[in-house]
Amino acid sequence: MSGTDYQRARAELGRRLRELRSESPHGCLTGIALARLLDWPQSKISKLENGRQTPTAEDLRAWADVTGHPEVYEELHARLRGFESHIRSWRRQLAAGQRPVQEAHNAAQANATVLRAWESSWVVGVLQTPDYARAILSSFAELHQTPRDVEEAVRSRMRRQEGLYDASKRYHILLWEGALHARVCPPEILAAQLDRLMGTVGMDTVRLGIVPLDAALRIPPGNGFWIYDDRVVTETWHAELWLEDAESLATHLRVWETLHQSAVFGPDAQRLIGRARRSMDHGEDYGAAPDPRATA
Question: Containing H/E element for 131?
């Protein structure tokens, strides 16, 4: 969420608090009277109502109770949780090109120890080859009509891979099998990307799981996301969401664990990657291939 958007949302919450004070069932309360009832400085009432201070959940509970509107607490709390969800529109983020976005992710991943990912559409950035990254970033530069700094963005994304060799980090990455076949780049680039992915399976900092196309799914694949320790990052076509509230984190962890139950790992994951690679060479019908989880 940009600073302007954040301030606008906080000001709207302030107006709602002022409305509750003026519509108290016990009669309109002055700011001084409310401060006395809450045992707060009168300046705090003014700052909250004018959007110059962010309330805590406890502040909102006390305000709702004392003004005679306990039933609106959930509404107020939902507004507060919105402050903890940072919506970064692509239009604003990409105004200066793609490299700053890549650097933001580099910093977030560098500061995280346990990193979980789910992706159903393409190979995640930290495992991409430079050519594959270039194809992905070029397509988004064209979609969003951003400054063409693709080469700088590719170099920045490649620096992210330094974390794969940091023994203190653990990457738990899940990919849908469809991402292995998605022709988001020329065939020769996808082939090299699959070769790179095959080698990732043996890394001691990475546990790569593939969810087969024919796997039973308890939930739909949905959109991809990363969990950096206790922060969630997910994308839509118009914005990137950085979510830090406990409820969003818990929901995405449940999604990840649920999809994890349908994934295969180790040699079984390598067989799926190999199957996608062979389908490019021989035009195989990968949908009719045998279940890689079956024993030989």
Answer: helix 130-144
